[in-house]
Amino acid sequence: MDNQIIELLKNKDDYGLELLQMYYGQFINYILCSLRLNQQDREECHNDIVLKIWDKIEQYDETQITFKNYIAIISRRQGLNYVRKNKKLLKEIQYEQMDLFKDIQDVEKIDWKYVVSKLSYKEQEFFYRRYYYYQTLDEISKERAMTYKAVENSYYRLRKKLRKILQGEGYYE
């Protein structure tokens, strides 16, 4: 189905947009929900994402990334840009980001693929939920059917392990 959607989008066929919405609309909304936008902003941002996918589909390379991951990357970036542009970035997100990385000068230079590969599968899932999708600990606890305290402890251990890995790589002194 992905190949059909991609082909239709590359040919600028409106039916490709319908299929994109049908198969990936909820996935895009899931990513946007983590940014805590109100319904109107989420719809506007959703439309911007679909338009961005439509405009940038020629740049998609199936040998590099799956279509779903391509959509996730565009959705996340577009959503964060929307939030920044409208100055609605929550203090909680800023605080969480600053808390873990406050002593690191060039966060962008970290080889995250390598760092994440050092984590267990469960830790990787938690990492992506927390730092990629910006889910709150409460959201994670509900989706994982865990107590809030258990998630909080997992988060603490993850941060501790990330700090240790980053120290080993020379990002912390």
Give a written overview of the molecule.
The structure is a single chain. The protein has 9 helices and no strands. Helices cover 72% and strands 0% of the residues. The chain is mostly helical and 173 residues long. The radius of gyration is 18 Å and the shape is globular.
Order of helices and strands: HHHHHHHHH
Whole-Å distance between the termini? 49 Å
Number of strands: 0
The computed structural class is: mainly alpha
| Shape annotation | globular
Strand content: under 5%
Helical fraction equals over 70%
Average pLDDT taken over every residue: 81
Radius of gyration from CA coordinates: 18 Å
Task: Report the biggest beta sheet as strand number plus sense, adding barrel if it closes.
Answer: none
Instruction: Give the low-pLDDT segments.
Output: 88-98
Number of helices: 9
